[in-house]
Amino acid sequence: MSTNVKGRRTIRKSSLTSQNSRHVGFWELEAKAGSTLARLEKAYLGALDTVDAVEARKAASASSGKFTSEGLKADVLSFAATHAPSLKRSRQQIAVAKRELDDLRGRVSLDQQTDKADAVGYLRRLEIRGFLAGMNDEKRNQYLSKNRDSLPTEWVRAITEMPAIVSGILDNDHKYFVDRELQRLHGDTIKEVEDLQRGIEVAERAIEMAREEIIREAEATAVQFNQAAAPHEAKVGVAWLSKEGNRTVVVDLDRKVKREATPEELETGVFFASYDDYAASNGIRTERTAA
Which residue from 28, 29, 211, 272 lies 20 to 30 Å from 231 (Cα-Cα)? Predict the structure, then answer.
């Protein structure tokens, strides 16, 4: 079990013991400093802080006696809208994390293990598949059951590089060998995929629930909140970070220069692979998105 348990079970701090509380889930993933997972952790915790801040503002304003009921709603809505940019930045981080997850998944494949120019190796594996296919079902199943954990790598490769029907083995056995080979070849990447996928799920749930909760706290509609938040969110963008030697700089497209990154840009910026990725995260239409 991870020792890095952060956050809380419910989206509202005051609802920790309420049967009607909305479950958001703890953050239980270990994240390396500066990693995408660390940014997701920060987004998750930031979402909880946003809910707490708006809840506290409403309580303070209500107890001050300065507001009518409508004035209180307006005050809370105005305050909640100032937190919209942080939630927007967090959603942008989610989008970046999802693209990184797709890239990682693309690396988890058995294709790289086969040298297509090795005709001799291919013929050996063809012979292995023929040997297995030539057995009757009972004998083949017994053989694999007895030797499944001790089969040589080339036998496993012979089985996994073709569909189960080619060697005659059961689908469950084929899946076992495929999973085993993937784990052997890409174990670290598979763990990274699993952690990143879980991190995205937890952070995205917290971010979306936080937005819903602060709208509810302001007793506003989504349309009213969006209108109040729009001027604040319009100022939000994700900086395009780049490496120049040991320096991290910002690709400033407005000024058409690379410049020193501010502390905030270092914290919230992203090393985009292309302009299309940058545009997608910042809501900019390109020829590709317009097509």
Answer: 272
